[in-house]
Design brief:
The structure is a single chain. This protein is α/β, with parallel strands linked by helices. Helices cover 40% and strands 18% of the residues. Helix 4 crosses helix 11 and helix 19 crosses helix 20. The longest helix is centred in the last third of the chain and has 26 residues. The two termini are 35 Å apart.
Amino acid sequence: MADNQTELSPMQLAYRAIGLSLWRTRQRALGTNENAPECLFKLMDALAIADEKGSVCIQWEKTEAFLGGEEIQLLTEKRLLAQKPQSDRENIDEEIPFVLDIGERVNRLYMQRHFEQERDVATKILAFTQQDSFSLATAATQTLKHLDTLRYNESSDDDPSRAEQQGAVAEALKKHFFIITGGPGTGKTTVVAKLLECLLAQDASLKVALAAPTGKATSRIMQSLMGSCQRFPSFFSRVLKRIQEKTLAAQTIHKWLLTRNVKGVMPSEKDPLDIDVMIVDEASMIDLRLAQRLLKVIDPKRTRLILLGDKFQLSAVGPGSVLADLTAEDGALANNMAELTISHRFTSDSNVGRLAQAIKSANSSFNGEDFINQFKKAEDGKDKVSIRLYRTGFVDPSLINWIRPHIKSYLQALNDYLKDLENLIADEKLLKKLWDEAEKFRILASQREGANGVNAINRLMESIVREHVGAEEDSLFYPGRLVIIRKNTPVLDVYNGDVGIVIPQADDSTRYDLYIGDRHKRIPVGLLPEHDTAFAMTIHQSQGSQFEHVAVLLPVADDNPLCCRELFYTGVTRAQKEAAVFGTFKSIEASVLHKTERSSGLADRLLGR
């Protein structure tokens, strides 16, 4: 074992313990008592680092020396390592924990479960792409032609985004599997509305499913789809009818995986989902395991699968970068995807859009001072951005100044609602206003701990709200507390990412419900699964959400791994009217320049490498 374990991270120490346990198990099976070789600890250290980064495997160039031939032979002889099978149909002994894939350019070493997940995902995706293209009925082609006359405004005859969207719809109509990628406001939901209108013109009885990884993202896709259709009802009459009839189901991916069919059977490979079209939003949030589970219950011969997402956003919390791998340049799926590049939200007069573009397109010539000066205070346009540098080790005063007007409006709406409750009126309009005020702003932090982390900000916000409503200092539930659900709980119909407001029950003001406003759902707080306060949330948790006003809190230390481009971009693009960035000079610079890369073999596996 290494001489100095004090330099190892907790994750590395944990992985070393696993490796040692595996070695001892093999020694007992072989009837020997040899000491664990150093190469095993080197391997476990590398796997721990890969895990911390969200990588699926360890990856190294052919020219690099990670594991030598003798080390590979030793681990193979001890039945700790297996070579990648020649055929995808060939199974690996379940008792062997690691798999080595020797490639033409790079070598990759996996834990077996990650290797199997990646292989399954690639096999399933290829099964979709190998299906014959769909032939379109006259009704679908006529509908597509009619949709080409849709104009967003009087001057949009030459709008290049219209041609971009029409092209995406035309291609998606032919495919069993299709990816639509693009940033905020590029029309991903409009493309889905057009696609569904064409498909329903061809077959009005189609079974359509909408899905997303979190409850919040699921609510947003339905809201966005309804908004697109209601804006142009004459163009989307079929989709609107399905929405009004509630025959266009939207659920989290996890709920679809647990939805029993008419026979009372859970979805499986043998009993796939009874669905003709599945549309999954926020696909960047899907990790490798969730992708495997979803693909396993979809029949590629019957079901069209459409993925929507922004490939510049953060990858999933779990291992893998599925959307990024599927949309790799010159990848296997180039003919099964469309990238929307023209944003109606982030137009030329959008400061938030300019900030987002500057983050995602930065190169080696990037200058931190120029960047900060450019966006220090930009208010001439349809929206505004600002950059403020941290000044203290506590919750920054400038952040408190930013919070003050937003929390004031929220507390006023809370007062109005509670006053009506006292009069036994419980006006639903006032409850909606309270929800709207809560959803207007959010503080998005890169990290949980630290002076400007989620926990510190939430403690501050909770103290303000508790004092305002006269709640005890240590009370867990009180009127106005914002809560985010952290655990999928299908029996209660609440899911990871659902956000709600704690409100008194109408008939007993000493008892509380959580009101999840975007689903008009109430649940007694005593039944809530794992949850957190949500005035501030991590940028990871904010994916799939949009707020008018957003504060993006970057780490203080520039060597923090959370200083990364994808996190910064994701936080900024949650904003509709204002993005206020807080950080140090160095953390802002690091957050623009540091691009996260996760090791994975999925893109190569789709190419047959």
